[in-house]
Amino acid sequence: MGSDPKARVFSTGASSGSWTGVTEIKASGVAPAFAESASSPSAVPVVKTAPRRKPSTPNHKKAQPSRARIIAVGGGKGGVGKSLVTTSLGISLAQHGKRVVVIDADLGGANLHTCLGLPTPETTLSDFIARRVESIEDVVLETGVRNLGLISGAHDHLTASNLKYFQKARLLSRIATVDADYILLDIGAGISFNIVDFFLISEQGILVVIPEPSSIENAYRFLKMSFFRHLWRGLKASPARKVVEQAMDQKNNQGIRTPFDLLEAVEHLDASTGRYLKELALAFRPRLLINQSRYPEDERLGGSMAMVCRRHLGIDVEAIGTIPFDDSVWKANRKRRPFMLDSPESTAGRALENVARSLLTPSTYPRLAEKR
Q1: Phi/psi of residue 184, nearest 5 degrees
Q2: Would you list the DSSP string of 261-288?
Q3: d(CA 33, CA 19)
Q4: CA angle, residues 11, 13, 18, in degrees to nearest 5
């Protein structure tokens, strides 16, 4: 990836320690800068601003996809800890020597900069969406953490959270060109197509769930809608696309209520398309991460949900870990310090470090985009 100006964002900060964290914070106002004492092994410079990288030289060549692994972190429901999981995994991967960019794709509700202890950035995705800058590389900001860059989410809610199709298509294609080893997307809550499409561009999608009925229910709904949308995008001009569109309506008059029903309906319509759809289905391999577990039964939730998904939805889901509830998280949030810097050896921190290590293993499954 060379030593060109694009690498400047990865050159600031410290490189020691294992920094992890797991809970969502929704702080108002501007987050103060953070620093550790000079004697601390994980000290980082005081970050008073979020420096912008040097603007790229305009060129008219089509941007090429990078070799970065794209990992999306979703939740279906707000408040489950997506943003802290995203920043924690990003910092941990950066501490392992990987060049990482975290992207706040929660359009209209951006807060990754707060999780990193940074003030509100002046340059955000809004500038790229509105074409005030030409290259998405121009909105990558320094974070004060070595190897870690940030693309802050848009702050003009009405424009950013209601992207037009061509704006979304341009943004999704350019995200894949960001120069990094890992690109981590923090996506918004809900099951709108804009949100689901961010989840589907990833090589690995992680769904964060807390042990509460509303979160579990929303997770199942999100998985089902993502699965249908994945199949719909793969069929392109096929007549079977209409069947998938009908399946997205839970009250459809075709009797399609589950992915099993959908695959059967398409195979009945066209056997060869049905076989192709089954191949697409095998490429959909999301992961579950249980956050804020308090009781022994919470530790079994991931495995139970994965079994239900396989048995009743026909979706192969992998449970990748459980993050315990930890008082050190809210204490760090109250101090407006990144949890990963404040309590790296906490039980929650060690648990999420294990998740980050699992992401370092190359995926054996094809990228969803390659199947489309």
Answers
A1: -110, 125
A2: HHHHHHHHH-HHHHHHHHHHHHT---EE
A3: 17
A4: 115
Report the C-alpha gap between 324 and 135 in whole angstroms.
Answer: 40
Name the residue ranges covered by the structural domains of the chain: 64-209+326-366
Please check whether residue 10 is in contact with residue 99, taking contact to mean a CB–CB distance below 8 angstroms. Answer: yes
What gap in Å lies between CA 173 and CA 273, rounded to an integer?
Answer: 27
In CATH terms, the fold of domain 64-209+326-366 is Rossmann fold (3.40.50)
Give the position of tokens 């870690």: 148
Radius of gyration, CA atoms only, the chain: 20
Q: Do 152 and 80 contact (CB within 8 A), yes or no?
A: no
Distances from the Cα of 95 to the Cαs of 47, 150, 348, 359, in angstroms?
18, 15, 17, 13
What's the pLDDT tens digit per position in 149-167?
999 987 665 555 678 888 8
Residues 12 and 144: beta-carbon distance below 8 Å = yes
- Cβ(52)–Cβ(122) below 8 Å: yes
Least Cα distance to 286 among 325, 258, 314, 257 occurs for 314
The candidate with the shortest Cα–Cα distance to 26, out of 83, 101, 94, 68, is: 83
Angstrom distance (rounded) from CA 357 to CA 92:
8
> Model confidence over 243-301: pLDDT tens digits?
999 898 888 888 888 888 899 999 998 999 999 999 999 899 999 999 999 999 999 99
Taking only the tens place, the pLDDT of each residue in 197-249 is 999 999 889 999 999 999 999 999 999 999 999 999 998 888 899 999 989 88
Q: Are strands 148-151 and 140-142 parallel, antiparallel or unpaired?
A: antiparallel
* 303: Cβ contacts below 8 Å, ≥ 6 apart: 319
Nearest to 340 by CA among 90, 31, 12: 90
Dist CA 343 CA 240 (whole Å): 52
The most distant pair of C-alpha atoms in the chain lies apart, rounded to whole Å, by 69
Looking at every residue in the chain, the average pLDDT score rounds to 80
pLDDT at 369: 42
